[in-house]
Amino acid sequence: MLITLVRRELLDNLMTFRFAAAVFITLLLVVANTAVLIKDYERRLEAYNTALKTHQQQLRERKTYSGGLLEIARPPNPLSIFNVGLDKQLGDETWIYHSYVPTLWDARMLGTTNPLLNLFSSIDIVFIFEVVLSLMALIFAYDAIAGERERGTLRLVLTHPVSRGQILLAKYISAMICLLVPLLMSLLLALILLTTSTTISLSTSDFLRIGGIIFSSVAYLSVFYFIGMLISAVTRRTGTALMLSMFVWGFSVLVYPNVIVAAIAPPYTSQARMVSTFDQIKQIWDELDRERKQFLANDAVPGEDPSFGMVKSGFAYEYFYEDSSVLYYHYGAGAHVEELNEESEPSVPHAQDYYRFLVPRSVDTAEQTWLVQRPALEAIFVQPAIVDRILLRFSPVGMYDAATQAWAGTDLHGLRDFFEAARKYRRTVIDYYYDKNAFRAREWFSADKGAVDWDSLPQFSFQRSDVRIHAERALPDMLLLLMMNLLLFMVILLVFTKSEV
Amino acid sequence: MIWHIAKREIYDNLNSLRFALATVLLFGLMLTNAVVHLREHPARMQKYHDASTELLNRLRSRTDLYDLAQLGPEKFHKKPSPLHFCADGGEVFLPDTIYILISRITNDLNTLWYLSYRYQMPNLKNIRPNTIKVDWGFVIGYVLSLIALLFTFDSISGEREQGTLRLTLANSVSRHTVLIGKFLGALVSISVPFTLAVLMNLLVISTSSDVQVGTDAWSRLGIIFFISLLYLCLFLALGLLVSSRVHQSGASLVILLLMWVSFVVFMPSTLASTASGFSSPMTSEEYWERYEQLYAELGDEYNARLQDTRGVPTKRIELRGEYVSKGTERGERLIHEHLAQQHAQIQLARSVTRISPAALIQHLFESFAGTGFEQHQQFVENVQVYAREFREFVTDMDRADPDSRHIIGVREGMSQKPINSEAIPTFEDTLSLSRDFNAAAVDLLLLILFLAVLLSGAYLAFVRVEV
Prior knowledge:
Largest interface: A-B, 70 and 68 residues
Shape of chain B: elongated
Helix content of chain B: 55-70%
Low-confidence stretches of chain A: none
Mean pLDDT of chain A: 88
Distance between the termini of chain A: 20 Å
Largest sheet of chain B: 3 strands, antiparallel
Number of strands of chain A: 4
Strand order of the largest sheet of chain A: 1-2
Number of domains of chain A: 2
Helix content of chain A: 55-70%
Radius of gyration of chain A: 30 Å
Number of strands of chain B: 5
Structural class of chain A: mainly alpha
Order of helices and strands of chain B: HHHEEEEEHHHHHHHHHHH
Strand order of the largest sheet of chain B: 1-2-5
Largest sheet of chain A: 2 strands, antiparallel
Oligomer: heterodimer
Shape of chain A: elongated
């Protein structure tokens, strides 16, 4: 019986204009946007590759340990085509330096040919589904019950020995099949476009993650279908059902997500916390500065640090940059001496002593400040962002967006993975310096007796976390979506079985 | 007769669910908009005020003409628009400050200041979710247009289905009277709650003493309101057109919604992204390459010619002056080229998006609210005008001193007299309504054209329709 019902519904739906329109518009939008998105991804990948080359070049030109920064870049995420999340927005180039701990807030942007292009919002595939397919689900659902009741066919069907639950199930199954057609077809086309591009290569794990995105999309569609069905079950007339559905759609897709983020103010207490934390960070660095001055005062050789008057060609530097808006404080001192002044050979041991004292202390100081900086950044920036995302989840759009971002790895977690890796790499580099006894070496600041050999330096490579971790991150939102499905189905069943035909 | 039909429509609508929902939605959105503006605008103004006062004090503290010529005004701040609540204009993606640049020609020779349009990415540190700002542009561009379609999709096809259209036309009314009556009815029944919501929004905003809306701003608001009504009419006409062509109101709604989704939600971004792919402005790498090459060449040239002047200090000063001005001029030309290419790319993308009425209204709102890309271009122009003024001031001050050698850019060649710091010209970002009109003229004309086409389309479709 169920099969007969499903077949009837399916034939009814498949022959309709709305089905053809849904397929057509989804395919059109997905293909047009995927082409743009792939081009954009290729541009970002090219920028990344150029950056890698430049970084290699810079490293080769660097002859002393302290003669510069070691730059690293984040590869663009191929799954950002599905949900771009924060992938394009946040900085993707940061640097490794012994007295600086890299954070998300002071990274730079790669390959920004025209930063003004951000004025145009970018549309990803998930956004298209979010808007178009949810609308379609409601259009399929609004007259599912109300329409049959108006036409009187519902009464006719119920004269047969079928339970009301079966009717609902049949309607649901057939409508979902109809909605899956545009979803899967457009995804297939997108994947075909993806594979024709030579620069994008997807691994098995990527395909599994795309599978996760598809599954979330189905759950999302089903939520909207159920919402439409519920409205259809409680209203007497299709006209009312339609209006109500459209306003529910407009509210949950269009209005709520934008309004809630605008209406929530970042907490005002953060400003005070920012100031006090920054003072604390500065104090820690001032402490180092005092010790450094003490050390220099006790030193026998008068001279201006950090070069001790040695530089004939090359450069010596000492600087600090600060940006109190992101609690950023960067102290650097070192030199890149290519040739020594003839008379300054005696001051070389002093410089060596100086750096042997200063560098390990500044490494420790950087880590000490990180202990202060991290919880403050967490409280000032990350917490409000998390609160925003929790509030967004009151709309199915928010759940869907969060789940697909987690699958794609373009959510906050995915982005922070990179900076976690950068911090780990900083530790590796420092350990490497310790192994090489770099701080006390002449090559720390001077290349006159031979340049540093960088070949044995461990390379940085950013591995995205595996599918399991993505699944773990997506799980809460997937569960929310599924629970919402279940809840809505139960409510509809309750309403429908109690309602008069 | 028209009024008769319109009145019937209005009474019908006033009692309907959609009217109630639309009213609630519009009021809610406009209230949010006002509250957010009241919360954010004072902080924005304060920031601008503090920054420009500090800048002014620094400028006023200079008395040495050479320092003034070399360092210039340091930076320029964009003034936040009081009508920010009408259109946000992608505030976070546009720089609010223009800095200056001083380039090194050789180790002991620097250029004078010139404008650097290099942008910092203000949104780089933002990890909050990316959403559309709830400004008037959003409320009208997205929500009001959707409401317009929901009010008209069944106005003809629905009546045809019920058979009441035949009944109406059996009376001695012409078809266009019916059409205009329906159009007016829908227009009135949407614009009444819309106007009330707008008034409430303005009332809330004007009660606060922190946010001031001047007379100029009120006339701008009037224009924006007028444009919103035009836009509303456009979507009403579209709804009537489709409704009279399509026989079932269900199908008419599906068509309208899909058109709405493509034109309002997707087209502006997709078209802009596609169009911006056609031009490729100078990349940062290219720019820096050319920059370094430029100054390396100039430096070599200068060093070579410096050999000839050895021993003659006056000649040396003249040579320095020549290269300082050359370096400044060429550096400025290069960076200007970079900026012009970037702006041209955006301009092209924006013109292509004009096919979508939602993009049109976005542009119009931005122009008249004094935000967004148009205003950014005005800001850049204002800064350029001021930069010329500032340089003329330095030259004039120098010319006024008979002891000076009049070689700008070299300390020894310039007037040594302390200058009156009150006389230094100051920069203030301004907006002009006439310029905004010029910028918006094309958009406005296109909007009217679209409206005319859709209205006549609706008329023709309805006249030829079989009942």
